[in-house]
Amino acid sequence: MPPKAAAQVVPAANFGRVKANLKMGIVGLPNVGKSSLFNLLTSQSAAAENYPFCTIEPNEARCPVPDERYDFLCGIWNPPSTQPAYLHVTDIAGLIRGASEGAGLGNAFLSHIQAVDGIFHCVRVFEDSDIVHVDDSIDALRDLETIQSELCKKDLEFVKKAIAVEELAVKKSGGRFKLSPNFISVTEKLVKMLEENQPVRMGEWTTVEVDLINEKMSLLTTKPVTYLANMSKADFIRKKNKWLPKIHAWIQSHGGGVLIPFSVQFEQELWNLRDDPAGKEAFLKEANGAVSALPKMITTGYKELNLIYYFTAGEKEVRAWTVYNGATAPEAASVIHSDFGKAFIKAEVASFADFKEYNDGSKGMAAVKAAGKYRIEGKTYVVKDGDIIYFQIGTLNGKKK
Predict the structure, then answer these.
(1) Mean per-residue pLDDT for 128-134?
(2) Which domain-ending residue is among 303, 327, 354?
């Protein structure tokens, strides 16, 4: 008898919901630039005042995902309707030390983090006496530790509640049920990690263990994190700040992740020049090659949520459709309309790269087909990022549509 295959260890992206409408939440201490960043990302006017807890209820919005492929397709077809992919972003109020025990407005804010699927962890690395800091001084590592500690403490509470619920169910069964060995081993591992202030995403987990955690608990430290360091305009332009190497080292020793330096001050001044091409050009010329960090934030957040998108393109519309990475063709079709997945017949597919290479400037797929790069795919096809797809759909009673 062949040996059992080893259980597959999976990345943190497999924690949480497997859906297309996932959200990134901007998290950090009060007055580190979260709401100002949110306003810039989403071009909205969410309140951004210079005092703690300005944001109480989370603001939610979406920002378009920048993509040259989408721009290229819009340029080819020039349709009356265009729709890019969007990253959904939530601005969450500042956490403080003791939030996991209810300090400040902690419990409410932690529940807002529980409602998102990934985290933009914003930390401030500039001094400014006009902008108060909740701890009266700038210490990026202390701030990183504070947020991680509060999330771990809250997760420990969630795990212990899940254990209590299972033990009560066993007790009520009168001995007919017992705690499963898998549940016991997973919760023991979770308790140990969280008591040692280690986020759950740092652990190695099998698919079975991830499924159990997803089913029994909604944990904060399973969420993927992108770290954002808010610098002064001067430091951002010169690409140097004393905290950046320390933050990078901290991230690498705490499970890894992407670090994106940015400057709210720089981004705000650049945004204010959006309708002044000459002024914008002069500003960027003086900025010594510095460019906006917002596009990188958006594309990184989208990727960290394990999202991709495919395109539909034609005379009436060019559109990017968001799906979870790993979606099959019928699942991708159901994003357009729920019935399309049920009545799926086939997908006609060309990769964007092939379309761009073989397209002769025309709107159709004739040149791509002639090059043998236009494919017919069935129900098991896993959609790739940037696919251009035309779905053939039947009706639910079996008649072709």
Answers:
(1) 59
(2) 303
